[in-house]
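Bump. Still looking for DUF2336 domain-containing protein structure tokens.
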Amino acid sequence: MLVRRFLAWVDTAPAEARASAIAALARAYIAGDMEPEERGEAEKALTLMLDDPEPAVRRAMAVTLASSPEAPRHVASGLAADADGSVAAPVLAESPLLGEAELIERVATGDAAAQEAIASRARIAAPLAAAIAEVAEPSALARLAGNPGASILDFSLTRMAERAGGDPCVRAALEARGDLPVAAKHLLALQDAAGLGRDEVERATIDLARQSPATELRDFARHLRRSGQLTASLLLRGLIVGETRLFAHALAELSGQDARRVAGLMAEPGAEGFAALYAAAGLPESLRPAILASLSARRELDPDGLLDDPGIVRAIVARAAAEAADEDLLGLLHRLDADAARAEARLAAQALRDQQASAAQALLPPTSANEDEPLPASETAAEAAADDLPEADAATMPALEPEPLVAAEEAPARTGDSLYAALVERILAGRSWVAPSATSAVALDGEVLPAQAGGSGGDTPTPIWGPPFAGAEDEDAERKETLAA
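Sorry for the wait, here they are.
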């Protein structure tokens, strides 16, 4: 009976009234206050309204039923599959009735609004996150990367960086995560290195490997291999500059061997075991002498693998170059030597600056002992101490008479002030100081340099700041007489 009356009404009711009515009916249904017969009729009415031509009506029903576990299962599925994203989004984002398979299907077939809604769910399992990472639009990827309730595996994060690392929102969301794998970081770094040469890209790759934990380097080597960036020049560069971990994991990835076994074989590069490993990895035979020389030199000059010294790099390059015959290989080694030489020069310049700064600091006067004394107590503490003193009786206090003022002109001369006299003597002595003649020499830190040009050239020296003012000698004589008095 309810369904008949409702259908007779909705045929002529405006869209706004239909939206209000269906929202009220949906609230009554999930509240559970209906008799079983009425509940069945209400469910039929809700099902019929899935075909309402007005999206606002279907959206009102979706918003009301979205988060309720009491909503009819088929109605929730119908709303989630609605062609209008604004209708499907509330159910896709909140409904507990939708299964993972259904959500994955909606990710593959829905628009960007539906994908964003699914990526915003409070809990997202790894399979659903992988589906979003594989096919969703960048806006949904950014929403997924920033969702704390999403379980995203490393390969899904890497796939997101590969597909949409150039999108500002996706990049910001990925970089804000604390669990971004090194492969994903490398893909984002390549976005910054677009347009740069091979050397710059390889340097950035090795720097990223240095910053990564050893547990991630095998996956990083696998990523480099799959993306076509695991080259012989990258391995040799890493080995020469000291990133032997990436070299070992790359050999393990290429040969299919365990990384620990590879590290053990690298300890004896001249043995047959390493020769077999090298052949299994498929590295160029023309590169083998340079790699053997680099491994031996690195173990000899830096056995613990702790030093990042440009001088060691240059020594290793020299040994590798002595064994290299290929022109391309020699070109790479020359570029590595040039990079190390520049780094060595920068370190030497910085050391000189530090030495000069230390010498200048040593020439400064010693710190006064008074500067180390503690500051006086605060005014509040002083006032508190003054409150403890006994109050003085004004009647017993002697009257204080002001002392007569002495005019400034009649003030007695400070003939006994030795400090003032010494200061005046230094000033007078400084006025008579003159620069050396143009033919003399000045010693500076043990080095004899020619004196400044521009002197008078005569026997009479010129004061360093120029000739004195007229009458200066008379004023000096008068001052000396005053001091003598």
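The beta strands are 441-444, 447-450.

Edit: fixed formatting.
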